[in-house]
Design brief:
The protein is mostly helical and 502 residues long. The chain is built from 22 helices and 6 strands. The longest helix is centred in the N-terminal third of the chain and has 27 residues. The chain is globular and about 85 Å long.
């Protein structure tokens, strides 16, 4: 029998029995989940799409579903096709708007939180399960509850796989574990790294002539099947981008990944330690024999190896190394932390209660801060809104060629503008030397499937000089203006710089 699937110890089994406290914990978990769902949808409704999300919707909402496969074969974006089909189905049912595109992410985050709660509840008690639920809300997770990218579903499927693994062992659960890994790799290629803790756990508990567990074999098979189905897309993107275009792996990046996963971690950990010291000093904690680490807890701590495995993969295959690619580590870390507290303080309720309140308050406060100011933290949506407010004035002054040289503002403003046919994006003459080379290259590839107007130098500036407005021009564009024998004069200095040609 796979040791990972052994029966829970008697203490944990008793913790799972129904009790008023357990029922209250479940109600609290559902209440928190509802809060995060409602607030994520509110933010989704009041935040404009930004650059990466526009690639999602522009691909997902192509005229035909099979066009999604063609676009990804053309290396327009780097995600597997299934996620775009999910977004497409929500758009077809609810309309093509911000809420519909982001709803799969919101549902994924909330359902994943409840699965993390269920995992910890199975192993500890309701209070410690609430701690497990609260841990991911203090991470980068909530941001992906209101972004139209696949990371919310990534988190959900990682939590689902963990919930299945820590449950009973039989042929059906092995099959379900394989399905969860298959779906995860169909949502994001880096999901394959979630196999690492399960493989390590079985390797650490391996005995001679012992075969891998049925769940692990099913997970490997599901991962291999998903990668085989998506191989044409993977190979196409690898040919077009033989080296990483996002997040080059480095030792500083590896050191930074856990800080980025838990941006409030170095603030919360000292507070937790202080609270434990104060609570234990004031309480009458009895001497107790510390039970050994459970199988589930040791597995959960092995989820910390996922970013390390990602670093090795990125160095080996020249892939991207970005913290959000390792969002699948959060369910295991949260479960392990709850189990660790359960082992140490299960008879001393004051300690876990204070930790839960601290974590819950942090997650709720951070979420309410975003509700108060829904625009993205980089203020890109604010910039887009400022430009759109200015656009009508440009038209009144006879400007019918709106020339952009910054890819983020161009794609976002073009999507929301009522004058999209007037938008032109001007590529720099030395594209490879431009700091925004990769994002500009993405626009060029998207143009084959989405009606963008992209011009490459030399662009005839003189013919349309009287109708052109330069929107936040770069130094390279101003050089092109000088080469054409024209003069660029600032019409609006801020908040969006606009220049007219003479």
């Amino acid at each position: 029998m796979n040791p990972a699937l052994q029966e829970a110890p008697p203490a944990a089994a008793g913790a799972r029995a129904w009790s008023p406290a357990g029922a209250s914990g479940t109600i609290a978990a559902l209440g928190l989940a509802l809060f995060y769902l409602v607030t994520c949808l509110y933010i989704a409704r009041h935040r404009l799409f930004w650059y990466d999300e526009l690639f999602t919707v522009d691909i997902a909402w192509l005229p035909r579903a099979r066009d999604i496969w063609a676009a990804l074969r053309h290396a327009v974006d780097a995600q597997p096709p299934l996620y775009y089909l999910v977004v497409r189905s929500f758009g077809g049912a609810l309309g093509r708007n911000e809420v519909a595109a982001r709803l799969p992410s919101a549902l994924g985050v909330v359902a994943g939180l409840l699965l993390v709660f269920a995992c910890a509840r199975r192993l500890t008690n309701a209070l410690h399960a609430l701690i497990a639920l609260a841990v991911p809300t203090c991470s980068i997770l909530l941001y992906y509850g209101y972004e139209a990218r696949p990371y919310g579903l990534f988190f959900l499927l990682s939590a689902l796989a963990l919930w299945i693994w820590t449950g009973p062992a039989n042929q059906w659960t092995s099959l379900l574990f394989g399905v969860a890994l298959f779906l995860g790799c169909m949502i994001h290629y880096y999901f394959l790294l979630t196999l690492v803790p399960y493989c390590l756990w079985e390797l650490l508990h391996w005995r001679p002539w012992q075969l891998p567990s049925g769940k692990l074999m099913a997970g490997v098979a599901g991962t291999a099947l998903a990668l085989a189905i998506n191989y044409p897309v993977i190979a196409s993107f690898a040919r077009e981008f033989p080296q990483s275009i996002w997040g080059t792996p480095s030792w500083p990046a590896l050191e930074d990944v856990f800080t980025r996963l838990f941006p409030t971690g170095f603030f919360l950990l000292p507070l937790i330690v202080i609270w434990v010291a104060l609570a234990c000093a004031r309480g009458q904690r009895q001497e107790m024999v510390l039970p050994p680490m459970s199988d589930a807890e040791s597995l959960g701590w092995l989820f910390l190896c996922i970013p390390l495995a990602g670093f090795v993969l990125a160095e080996w295959k020249h892939e991207g190394f970005i913290p959000r690619y390792f969002i699948g580590a959060l369910p295991g870390i949260a479960m392990a932390f709850a189990c660790w507290l359960w082992r140490h303080f299960r008879d001393f309720t004051l300690v876990p209660l204070g930790i839960f309140l601290l974590l819950m308050a942090t997650g709720v406060t951070r979420q309410l801060a975003v509700v108060h100011h829904p625009d993205d933290p980089m203020e890109q949506s604010t910039t887009t809104r400022q430009y759109l407010e200015l656009e009508a004035r440009l038209h009144r002054e006879g400007k019918r060629v709106l020339l952009f040289s910054r890819p983020l503002l161009y794609l976002e403003a073009e999507y929301y503008s009522p004058h999209r046919s007037d938008y032109v994006f001007l590529l720099p003459s030395a594209l490879e030397d431009d700091p925004h080379f990769q994002t500009q290259r993405g626009l060029v590839r998207l143009q084959a499937f989405y009606p963008l107007q992209i011009a490459a130098p030399p662009f005839d500036l003189r013919t349309h000089a009287g109708e052109i407005a330069l929107i936040q021009p770069t130094a390279q564009v101003l050089d092109e203006v000088n080469k054409a024998g024209l003069t660029a004069e600032t019409r609006f200095a801020g908040p969006i710089q606009v220049m007219y040609l003479h």
